[in-house]
Every structure is written in structure tokens, then in C-alpha cells.
Amino acid sequence: MRRRDRFVFCAEAIYESQAENSEIKGHYLNAAAGTCEEMIKRAVFARELGVPNVMHDYLTGGFTANTTLAHYCRDNGLLLHIHRAMHAVIDRPKNHGMHFRVLAKALHMSGADHIHSGTVVGKLEGERKMTLGFVDLLRDDFIEKDRARSIFFTQD
């Protein structure tokens, strides 16, 4: 099934399900593509279908592409969900790489509305205090230093 057909299939399923039980449903249509131009085309098509959310895989797409898509989404009433496909290659190794907190803050600054931050259980498992620490970094305007949550300085 081609991408446009998948987008239509998902949109129809969302609307059919909502009509059946009056509950709001959602699905993040993946706008990630090989070029920024193609990503925008995908976001435009999602918007034309009336789907309020699009998704971007930031590591495979890149931060510049993420910011480009974020600007389009913000200007056109779409929510941009950031997926973290391939993140473990960067933030899981103990001897190199960078913590997901750094990636999450960069994504937040580049315009992400919603970031797939993981959980303290399951496949995206992380240490509880540390995971909640970077979730707070994304959510709150002011964060007090708290070494137990791996927040090493007060941030405003």
C-alpha cells in the first residue's frame, strides 16, 4: 500500500471509529521523507484529510527538517509528534553518545509539540527519576537543580 493510500486508509478509520462511538481518535501520520519538500507535501496531504497530527522521525530526518516541518505545522494548525526511531544507537551506549535529555531539549527548541519520551517500564524503559526529570524539562518553564533526577543546574 502506497503512502497516500495509507494516509487515506488511516483517516477513514479514524473518522469511522469516531462516528461509531463518539470518542475522539487519533493517529500520527508519518511525514518523514527524504527531502523537506516531500515532508511538507505529506503534511499538506494530512491536513487536507483533516488529520490534526503528523509525526516525524527526527534522527533519520534531521533537526533542520524537523524545524522546517515544525514551522509548517504551527502555521497550519497541525500538531507535530516527534518519534525517536533509532535513538538507542545514540543514547543507550554507556561509554559514548549523549543522553536523551540533550536530544529532547534540542527537539523542544526546534519546535516539537509532542515528544515520544519513553516510559519507566516496557520497551522504552528508563530509570524512573531520570525519565521523569527530562519529561519535566520539556513540560515546565523553570526547573530547579536536582541531581537525583540528573538535573545538574537550575534551568529557566
From TrEMBL:
Gene3D superfamilies named among the record's database cross-references: Ribulose bisphosphate carboxylase, large subunit, C-terminal domain
GO biological process: photosynthesis
Domain Ribulose bisphosphate carboxylase large subunit C-terminal span(s) in chain numbering: 1-156
Keywords from the named record: Photosynthesis
Highest taxon, organism lineage: Eukaryota
GO MF: magnesium ion binding; ribulose-bisphosphate carboxylase activity
Pfam families to which the protein is assigned, alphabetical: RuBisCO_large
The keyword Thylakoid is annotated on this UniProt entry: no
UniProt-recorded name of the protein: Ribulose bisphosphate carboxylase large subunit C-terminal domain-containing protein
Species whose genome carries this gene: Triticum aestivum
